[in-house]
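Entry — protein

Goal — fold tokens:
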Amino acid sequence: MTMYGANPEQLAALGRNLQRQIENIDAITTAVTSALAGTTWVGPARDRFETDWSTTFRTALQRLGQAFDAAGADCVARSTELQRVMGSR
């Protein structure tokens, strides 16, 4: 027999951990943007990288942050509901 379910405390911890990763994603975005701005580099290779960074890479990181935020919030909400149903709250 297959059992389904989750440990509410572990699920809430996972949710909080996912949401904390947004800080790391923001730090990467800030670090690369600052490094690029402070680098003397002129030419088509920089133009391509800057375009890719602005349109593809940074956007992907923002979407990842949004996905972590949504998944984290979902884990926390499910944990809260599990605890309510189980009579823990």
Remarks:
- The chain has two helices and no strands.
